[in-house]
Amino acid sequence: MFKRLQAVLLVLLVVGGCVGYQTRNGAPVYKTWDEGFGGREWAIPGVDSGTFVALNKHYSKDRNQAYFHAKIIQGADSSTFVALSDQYAKDSRHAFFEDRIVAGATPSSFRTAKYDFAQDATDIFLQTSPLKVCDINTFRWLSDKWEMDSKCAYTRGRKLENADPGTFKVINYWYAKDGNRVFESIFAKSIDGADSESFELDKGICEVCAHDKNRCYRYEKFVPCGDTK
């Protein structure tokens, strides 16, 4: 059984290593692989084989166009197009997430940031969405999926209304709190009636079970104490 598992893992590593741009009959193609279909090759529309260059496993360009996988990136300027990561790229006019324009981003200062975020001189971006952060100069990523700056706090880029960054504290992936409120990450809002001072996680393995001096909680909902397991 162990040898069979080793063989399967070896096949996956070999196949996985073949994903990306390859040449077939003198023309570049993009190869994918998954368990349902196995290896598949995708023709790149309108590609100029003589000037084609793969920038990484996900981005490429020729003298006329830029590509994400086998898709033409509409609006891209091939002559200035560069890949920043597996998901972000830019040219002299736009920033891109995969094959989509990142609205409002300034290409000259656009760069990748922590996790799957990006940023320019004035804002933070999550995929194609600007976060419109309160203070770009002090913005930082906390543990799990919480962020903050000197004026606001966020969960996965969604602003937490009335959060106090001066007392903001991450509890775990699901909960955070400040001196006045407890926040949950699913709906990015405070939990009505939760007592911040006494709020804490229940003991045990349940990461969404908590209590304060008045109530017990599972996620953002009140539950009878004793049911948070």
Q: What keywords describe this structure?
A:
four-stranded antiparallel β-sheet; about 230 residues; 27 strands; disordered N terminus; about 35% strand; mainly beta; 1 helix
Q: TL;DR?
A:
The protein is mainly beta and 229 residues long. 7% of the residues lie in helices and 35% in strands.
Q: Using the CA coordinates, give the radius of gyration.
A: 23 Å
**Coarse structural class:** mainly beta
Number of strands: 27
N-to-C terminal Cα separation, in Å?
36 Å
Helicity level, as a percent range?
Answer: under 10%
Principal-axis shape: elongated
Helical element count? Answer: 1
Q: What's the rounded overall pLDDT mean?
A: 91
Largest sheet: 4 strands, antiparallel
Oligomer: single chain
Order of helices and strands: HEEEEEEEEEEEEEEEEEEEEEEEEEEE
Low-confidence stretches are 1-16
* Strand order in space, largest sheet: 4-5-6-7
Strand content: 25-35%
Can you tell me about this structure?
The protein has one helix at 2-16; strands at 20-24, 27-34, 38-43, 53-54, 59-61, 66-68, 71-72, 82-83, 88-90, 95-97, 100-101, 111-112, 117-119, 124-126, 129-130, 140-141, 146-148, 153-155, 158-159, 169-170, 175-177, 182-184, 189-190, 200-201, 209-211, 216-218, 221-223. It has 229 residues and is mainly beta. It has a domain at 138-229. A four-stranded antiparallel beta sheet has the order 4-5-6-7, with no helix packed on it. A four-stranded antiparallel beta sheet has the order 8-9-10-11, with no helix packed on it. The protein has a four-stranded antiparallel beta sheet with strand order 12-13-14-15, with no helix packed on it. A hairpin with a 4-residue loop joins β8 and β9. The model is unreliable at 1-16 (pLDDT under 50).
